[in-house]
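User: I'll paste a sequence; please echo it back and then give the predicted structure.

Assistant: Echoing your sequence first, then the prediction.
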Amino acid sequence: MNIVFNIPDDVATQLSAGGDIQRQALEALALESYRAGRLTRPELRRLLGFGSRPALDAFLVSREIFGTYTEKDLARDRQDLQTLGL
């Protein structure tokens, strides 16, 4: 799907100073949809074209978006470390 919208030239000039304006718009839409729970991490990764989970993770961290880490996650990690003898 292609989406087209009009931006006044002077505003477009300001926005494009930050780089590729089309990429900025895509990232903004994708991140907001992810934050709202409308996209999963795999969908976000595919939409933004990242080839690996670590690449997506680095992108999210650079945007100060951190995943949730629950007590259940902690218990599982502790069990894994215990199993490894660490």
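Residues 1-64 form one domain. The radius of gyration is 18 Å.
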